[in-house]
Structure formats: C-alpha cells, structure tokens
Amino acid sequence: MPAEEMGKLTEKMRLTFAVSTVICVLVLAISPVKDFRSEWKQYKRSFVRYAQGRPDTKKLLADYSPNIDQVWLPGMNVTDRCTTCHQGITQASLADPAVPQPFRAHPTIPHNVRDWGCTVCHRGQGPSTEVAEAHETTLAWEQPILPAHFLQASCGSCHQADLKETPQLARGRELLTRLNCQGCHKLNNLDRPMLGPDLSSIGYKVSREWIYKWLKEPRTILDKDGNVTVNGVENEDETRMPKFRLKEEEIKALSGFLSAQKAKPLEAYKINQAVAATWSKRPDLISEGEVRFRQMMCTTCHPVAVTRGGETKLIGGDIGPELTKVGSKVKQEWLVAWLRNPQGYLAHNNMPRYGWTDEDLYKVSQYVMNNLTDSDLLTNVPQLGAPTDEEVTTGKRLFTEKGCASCHSLNGIGTQKEFGPDLTALGAKNASELEFGKAKIERNLVSYIQAKLQDPMAVNPAARMPQYSWNKADLDAVTTALLSETGPAPTSALHHLVVPKKEASFQVVGAFTEVYERYKCYACHRFNGYGGTLAPDLSYEGSRAQKKWIADFLKNPQTIRPALILRMPQFNMADKDAAIAAEYLSMAVQKPDVNPESVDARQFSPAMASMGKQLYEVKFQCQSCHTIGGTGGYVGPNLNNAGNWLTPAWIEAWLRDPQALQPDTIESRRNFTDEEIRALTAYLMTLRTGSKPAGSKSAANTHAIAQGAGR
Amino acid sequence: MKAKLMMVALLVGSVLCVLALSGCKKSAAVVKPDEAFGAYDTEPDWNDSTKLIKLGYQESQGKRVFYQYCVWCHADSTPAGPSNRGNVTPMPPLMNEGEKLNGESDEYMQNIITLGGSALGKSAMMPPYGKTLSSEEIKAVIAFTRAIAQPAYQKPGRPGSQYTTK
User: Fold this and answer.
1) Which of A415, A549, A588, B3 has the greatest number of C-beta atoms within 10 Å?
2) Tell me, what's the pLDDT at A623?
3) In the beta sheet, which residues pair with residue A34?
4) The pLDDT of residue A542
5) Phi and psi dihedrals of A389, rounded to 5?
6) For A296-444, where are the alpha helices, taking DSSP H only?
7) CATH number for the B41-152 domain, one of 3.30.559.30, 3.40.50.360, 3.30.1490.20, 1.10.760.10?
8) What is chain B's mean pLDDT, rounded?
C-alpha cells in the first residue's frame, strides 16, 4: 500500500465496515428477540389476552407482573417457578375444565401452594422456565413430572398413615402387606408382614401330588375362559402365593422335600364311634353338613367359588384361605384335628377355636371332604411316590435359593432377610439408575415399576421374583405405593414434615385374655385401632351394648346389619366364656364420656315413646335406612331389638353426633333438639323382639294422619 | 461487487440470527403425558362398563364420598352387594341419571345434600349431610355426579340462568 494512501479509507474497507456493522447490529439484536420470544413470556402475554377475553379481567390480572413468578421456600429447598406459566392456579373462577392449560385453577387441596410449592408433590424441575425442562426428563434433570394418576404417591412420602383422601395409595400399601413383599424386599411404612403358613408339618396336611400342583399353578379357580374371576372382577383377589418359574425337576425336589416335613405329630382325634355309625347311614348327611357349614359362617373369613351361568365368582371374606377345592387338598384326619384346635398345628394363626360337638365335626368334615372338591385338580400330576434322599436334599437347597424361606418358616431354616433389593428409596430413583435390559418400554420410573411387576423377567431375564397377576387397578395401586417409597424424606429439608403412623395396640387382662385368644376377636374386630376391619369396631362396645345382650349375642349371633354378606360366626360358645367376654367388654371397653349408666331408661314415659315413634316414622323417616318390624331399609342396623341391645346413653350420644362415636359412620349428624333426642331414645328403648313396638296404629295410617296435619 | 458483498453479508447475518433464535426452541414440544396416566382417577360408565370416564382430583374425592355415603340408595348395586334403593319411597334417582339431575343447578344439589330432602319440600328420606360432610366434600360429590351423568352434563351457558326457582 502506498504511503499517501495510509489512513484513508478505501472503498473496499468502507464496504467491509458497513457489512460488519450490519452483522454486529443483527447479532446484538438476537438476545432481546430471544428474550422476548421465550416460552414463559409468551405464556405471560397469552394469559393477559385470555384474561382480557373474560368478564373477570380485573380480578384475574390483579396480581399480574410481567416477570418470572416463583415460590421460594428455602426451608424446604423449594424454588418453583411453575406459577410463571400456570398463572391461574389460585383463581377460583378458572376451575372449569374448559379453561385451557396452563391457566386452569388448581383443585382445592388441604395444602396451600404458597406454603408448599409445586414440585414437592408433582416433581419436575421447579426452577426451570422452559416447558420441556420443567416437565420432562432432561440430561441435567432426571425427575420428570409424576403422572396425575400416581400423584397420591407424593402424599405417601410424608404421610406414613393412610389418609381418607388417598384410597389408591392405601390399597397399594394394603397389597404390599397382604402379598408380603417385605418377605424379600425392604420397605417403609408398612404394617407387620403376614407370612405364608409355617410348613414344618406340611407332610401331615397335604399329599406330595398336591404340593406339586400348587408349585406349578397356584391359581386353580378359573372360569370357562380360563380367567380367575373374583366378585365379578378378574384376578382381583387371587391366592397370595405367586407363580414361581420352576423346572420340572425343581418342582419334584421341592414337593419331595416338603412332603417329608412332619415335625409335630397331629393331635389325633377319634370322633365318637356311635356318632359316626349313626350318621354314616344317613344319605342326607352331606346336605346337613353344608347347612352347618353355612350356619357357622365359615364364609365370613373363607371365600368359596360359586359358578352361575358359566361365570365363576368367589364369595366370602378374605381373611382365611379359599376353600372351594380344599377337599381335594387336605387329608381328613388333618382337617378334623385342625378344626378342633387350629393352634395345635400352627401356633400363630387367626382361626378361632370353635366349640365343636362330635356330630357337627363329623358332618362338616364329611361335607368338606366330599363336596368341596375337584376331581380334575390332580389329573395332570404324575404319581410321585415317596421322595428319594437326593430329592429331599435338593429340595432343601431350593427352599432357600428360590426364596421360599422369605415367606414360609420351616423347622431349621431361618427366614431370609433382604433376599430381594431394598426398595425403600425406589420412588426417588432416576431413570439412569434403573436397568431396563432389553425391555421395550419408555425409559421412566413408572414404566419400569409396572413392567417389573407385570413380568419380572421382561426387565431382568435372571429375576428371581415370582409372577403375580394383577388387574389394572391393583397394578396402579401398588405402583403408587412403591412410588411413595422415596427414602427417609422426599428431600432432606423435608424431613421434619414426615407425619408418622401411630402404632396401635390393645392389651386385654384377666380372664378375658384366654377368651379373646381362643375366639380370635381381633381377627375381624378392631379395638382402639388394633385388629381387623371386617366386622364392627368394638372400641366402645361397653358404652353401646347392654351386658346381657352381649352374652346372648355371643352364644347365638343374630343379624344386626342386613346389608353385610359376612356375619359373625356361630362359635358354639360356652356360657362361661360368653359371660366373661360380656363382663369384660361392658366394663373395660367403653368410651370415657359415654357412661352406660348415665341415662336411666325408667324416666321414659309412654307419651315420650309415642312422640319418638312419630319423629322416627314421619319427621325424620329413619325407616329409609333402618328396619323395624320387617319394614324399612337395610343400610343401618336392624332396630327390632334396640331396647335389649343398646344402652340409652349410647342412643342419646349417637343421635347427638354419630361421627364422634364412629368417625366413618354414614349416619348423618342432624339438628335434633334435646326433646327429640329424648323422645327417639324412649321409642327405641321400647323395641324388643317378642314384644310389640309402642303405639298400635298401623304405620301407614299414622303416616297419612301426620301428613295431613303437617299441611 | 459492492452490492454483491452487501448481499452476502446480509445473508450471513440473517442465517446467524435464525440459527441463534431457533436454538432456544430446541425441543419445546407440547407435553403429552401418557393417555391412561393423565387422569387422576377413573370411573366406569355405569351404563357401559367398557367405557372409562376420566376424573380430576375433585371428582375423585367425590367418588370416594359417594361410595362411602351415597351409593347405598343412589345406585343399583353397592360394595356390599344389594342396593337399598328399592326400600326407599319415592325411589331416589341413580347418581348418573342425567335426565333427572342435569336439570338441577349445582346450588340446588348443594342445598338438598346439606339440608336434606324435607327442608326443600322433597322426601324426608334424604337425610341432611351438612354437619357430616364438609362443603368441599359436597361440592366434590356434585362434581362426580356431573362427571358420570348419562346423558352427559352440559354446564349452563350463562351463570344466573341456573338460579331459576324449581
């Protein structure tokens, strides 16, 4: 370049500067444009447009700011910017499902979003302001939004006790307990595990062939399509024994080993020869046995399959094992010994000890052995004969290796601890921590859990976990319960939020202890939160029922609650036992503020009772739910014998506030005046079976008169 | 020459701009949750059990309340088996009976559940539930009723029109 031209701009340089200036301006413009077009700002603007199109614009935009909104709760480690886009979550007028997302209001829940944030329950990436980053799995964030269907899992992370609002979670926890998942896996927040039966003396109970069949296919109640149908729903309440994938020789070895288990000889019992001789001549014996089977209410705890019109249903309770084919399963001498004293065979089990007469014992055992059978049950089972020593040794090894010892105890073999993986933090796992194997499923936690539950080998071909069969609702419930297992606390900062479960216990003392254990009251009834839920809660039975009635009822249970299929069994209880139980229940099991002596029934006059009858039949029409004298509904208990059954103090307290005595009762709390309560109590106390109810006019007549007078 | 260079520069600049801008939109696709998991809960259509009706949070709470308190008289079958509906005169409506219930306003439904039938000149066999259930629970039951109604429930077009006297 010549010297004189130095410092002068050539045409070329000018052009270069011009071009680079343009580029510079354009590049500088990128940032503000990008910012203007960012997703959250677009949602901000579209919310304003949406609000302007509604009549309540002013209210909707009262708190509006064009900036990022966030809920910042340092104590809980929460920085949630979700409200930047979800701007209407606290606006009640946006609750309608027609309101487009992300502007719809959040449903009213017990927790306020300002105090809790969003991600504590919904998961996802709180600080993000991009739709995909906030909701989905990204490279830097592996906890995506929890699908709405499993949201109850988040409640369960803190609430260790079940809440009424979370039935799906409660069902899932119930299944985890029932199926004894804790036998192999470590889990939090679950009740005491219910183990499979002790097998130490199984050789006395069943044949080797039956064990073979059971190990091969534990589900034997099938309808014509090969489905298991229980109470109209397929696969709902099948056997707790899952299907193990065992090879032929493994089944042979295990069945051989188990059939050789005869640790404790049976308490042999010979039914009186005379009884057996008399009854064996009677052809109607079997049907009489069936009548006694039904009268003793065996189906209250044990389900039995009934086939009608080609559809098979299990009917009955789920406390004891299903009995449809039990006659083809157990040996007769075992059955008789078991019925007389179940605790003689299994020390810890919930079957009550009935007071059997020889006659009943003979009839019922004959019925069970002859009618509750399936001649096809063992058709495909080879005759196995006595096991060889080698089979027994192999069987013993397999018993531990296959995980049998996780649920079943057996003499000399201890239960295994932590046989399967620890699941106490499964619900908080990232997708990258899971091994999907070759499973063709979405790479997320929910899909993983569901695939694993449905077919353990699909995810891991070497899985030892047996095969369960779930219906959709139970699969989702168990998934929810597993997702709630998020370790010590959802985040360490949330540790103080955990609401622990109250441990319930109920101790009885004195002479009642033996009665309580003999009849296993707690298998069905609940006392102060402890015990079963099949039958009414008896925590306040002493305040509720009269002592004489309790004793009479125990000796001969009557139907009180017609809507229930399941009923109190006929125990053939001895007078002495019934008296001890009645004494204890009426004195020691009371609600402190409902003293059964506090209201004296002698104060009630016939005039009060007839006013009570009017109120019962006309003003409040209690007959919609309760039955008196054969008419009325069957939602509430039958009141025919209320005067002999209930204490007046209980009736008054109940009418004042039923939920105070029984929180989940469906009887509604009303605005009765004191006078109305007195009158209704007086009327109910006149109701005694065998004597006529107060007032002799027919109900229809009284009704018509009162209707006329009311107008 | 000059014009040509200018053109090239503008082109390069605009390409750069477009690239930079599109960079921030990398995968902001619409979130599509799994169809089956998107619903908080479901209830089979009472007239056709193969169809599932999706329920939101409030409706599912209503389902819970319904199956504890209302099912005994307002459904043909109950968790315990038989229904008490036939024992009640006049026979109460089924909870999915759109023909009867779709015409009733939310406010009317709230009142009859809270105060009972007799307070509204209807059957005294419907007890008042205002002191047993919270108003939130009663609203939830109504939402559940609306969700399962057959024929389907249509929200009234103009608020106000639903407050006409019965």
Assistant:
1) A549
2) 93
3) none
4) 94
5) -60, -35
6) 332-340, 342-345, 358-371, 389-401
7) 1.10.760.10
8) 80
Residues of A in contact with B30 (CB under 8 A): 131
> Whole-angstrom Cα distance, residue A63 to residue B14?
39
Task: Flag whether residue B128 sits within 8 Å of chain A, measured between CB atoms.
Answer: yes
List of chain A residues with pLDDT < 50:
230-236, 691-711
Beta carbons of A234 and A228 less than 8 angstroms apart: yes
* Cβ B31 vs Cβ A131: under 8 Å: yes
Find, in chain B, the residue whose alpha carbon is nearest to that of A164: B64
Q: What are phi and psi of A315, to 5 degrees?
A: -125, 130
CB contact under 8 A, B34 and A23: no
Query: Which of A146, A129, A141 is CA-nearest to residue A87?
Result: A129
**Mutation target vs A (from B55, B72, B113, B154; most A CBs, 10 A cutoff):** B72
| Partners of residue A655 on adjacent β-strands | none
If phi > 0 it is left, if psi is from -120 to 50 it is alpha, else beta; for residue A6 that is: beta
ipTM over 0.95: no
Residue of A nearest to B139 (CA): A108
More confident of the two residues B98 and A415? B98
pTM for this prediction: 0.82
| Cα distance between residue A143 and residue A151, in whole Å | 14
Q: What is the pLDDT of residue A232?
A: 42
- Best mutation target, B57, B65, B76, to test chain A (most A CBs within 10 A): B57
Q: Write the pLDDT tens digit of every residue in B130-153.
A: 999 999 999 999 999 999 999 989
CB A301 within 8 A of CB A369: no
Give the domain ranges of chain B. Answer: 41-152
pLDDT digits over A232-291, tens only? 444 445 567 888 889 999 999 999 999 999 988 888 888 888 888 887 788 777 888 888
